[in-house]
Structure formats: structure tokens, C-alpha cells
Amino acid sequence: MAITDQNMNYLAVSDLWISYFNLENKPLLGYSHYTIFPDLEERWKQIFNLFLQGQKLEIEEEKQKKADGTSKAKHNLTRHLSIP
Prior knowledge:
Blueprint: E1 2-4, E2 10-13, H1 15-20, H2 33-36, H3 42-52, E3 57-65, E4 71-78
Antiparallel strand pairs: 1-2, 3-4
């Protein structure tokens, strides 16, 4: 699990999430998701914008293409939490 602010800067990340994306020993907290994943497809940026606007969407199994050309299947359920 990863938690970001409204600008997609990481506030918290779980060890499992770090391991899943092979991000061990990389600084994450305070950094933008788009800096960590510069090759992110535009479609994902649009989906994240919808989440940040408060929409609840379930993303079924997707293949995430990584920078090295490999891909990984995953199942996501992402929700945006707004704290007053």
C-alpha cells in the first residue's frame, strides 16, 4: 500500500509495496509518484486524477509495464481519502 498527498507525493509506503515494485533502498517519502515512475502511461495519470477528485474506481487485473520491458499483473482497489 502507498499513501500520497493531493500532489501524488508519497506520505507512506508499505514494505510489501516497496518490494513489489523493486524500490528497495530508494528514497520515496516526499517524492512524487511521477518522479519514481517517469514512464507511467497517461491513462494511469488520468485514473489517479479521478481518484484525487474523490471518485471510487475498481481497477481489475492490469499488466503494468516496467521500464526494463517486463510486465507484472496486479489487482488494485484504490480509494482516495479526504481528511478535512
